Amino acid sequence: NHTNDLAGEVVLVTAGGTREALDPVRYIGNRSSGKMGYALAYAAQRRGARVILITAPTALHPPPNCEVVSVVTTGQMRDAVVSRLPEATMVIKAAAVADYRAISMADQKLKRSGPLTLQLEPTADILAEVASLRKPGTLVIGFAAETEDHLTHGRDKLLRKGADAIVLNDVSREGIGFDSDRNAATFLTKQTAIELPEMSKRDLADRILDEAIALRRPQSVI
Ligand code: PMT
């Protein structure tokens, strides 16, 4: 029974896949549908939190009564997250962020003529910035989508980015992860790795919030 166990929390959720334009009609994007992030926003709100949903383009209807900030690029998502961060008591970064953008965007539609080489540069690392800028007590939970050695890469991301936890998805598995209604994950902290078996994204959202709340409790001495 989760009745109002997030009352008083302000949960900032990012969702969807950011897009980086190559020319006026094309972009670099990814397969994120936004379902995982929207499920988290919905569940957090149902459990009494005030929710700020910062979303890249999706085909979904946002949960009613949550504040929605629509963005397209990684830079816009970064600016929105940083500007709302002071209000947040919990940040959950379910968005799949474009890691690269074109060094210069073409003014006109690129013409097809032979091989094309694109020059890309890395985008801002929002999760790392949020972890360093947050005020004491704000929980920061990242996601990681991995296709190989997922525990090693997940642990590395947890430490490198300074998050309190990483929700690790093995996106090489059929039927879960990107665009699916179902997902499975490992909830990784510095001390623990909790397996969350395959279930609907709605149920997984509640399990992730359960684990997030548990992080607020003082650790028992072993
Ligand atoms: O949207 P769905 O279709 O429901 O799919 C859900 C999902 C698989 C997209 C989601 O559960 C997920 O795994 N999201 C994270 C995908 C991702 O970008 O992983 P990553 O390993 O590249 O990034 C790790 C973390 O850093 C993420 O929290 C990401 O938001 C953040 N990041 C990444 C790059 C960047 N430049 N800035 C960031 O903040």
TrEMBL record:
Stated EC number for the protein is: 4.1.1.36, 6.3.2.5
Species annotation: Acidisarcina polymorpha
Underlying gene: coaBC
- Which residues take part in binding CTP? D99, K109, F143, K157, K161
A GO MF term? phosphopantothenoylcysteine decarboxylase activity
Q: Which cofactor does it need?
A: Mg(2+); FMN
Q: Which domain of life is it from?
A: Bacteria
Biological processes per GO annotation: coenzyme A biosynthetic process; pantothenate catabolic process
- Known role: Catalyzes two steps in the biosynthesis of coenzyme A. In the first step cysteine is conjugated to 4'-phosphopantothenate to form 4-phosphopantothenoylcysteine, in the latter compound is decarboxylated to form 4'-phosphopantotheine.
- Stated family: In the N-terminal section; belongs to the HFCD (homo-oligomeric flavin containing Cys decarboxylase) superfamily. In the C-terminal section; belongs to the PPC synthetase family.
Q: In its UniProt entry, what is this protein called?
A: Coenzyme A biosynthesis bifunctional protein CoaBC
Give the catalysed reaction(s), semicolon-separated: N-[(R)-4-phosphopantothenoyl]-L-cysteine + H(+) = (R)-4'-phosphopantetheine + CO2; (R)-4'-phosphopantothenate + L-cysteine + CTP = N-[(R)-4-phosphopantothenoyl]-L-cysteine + CMP + diphosphate + H(+)
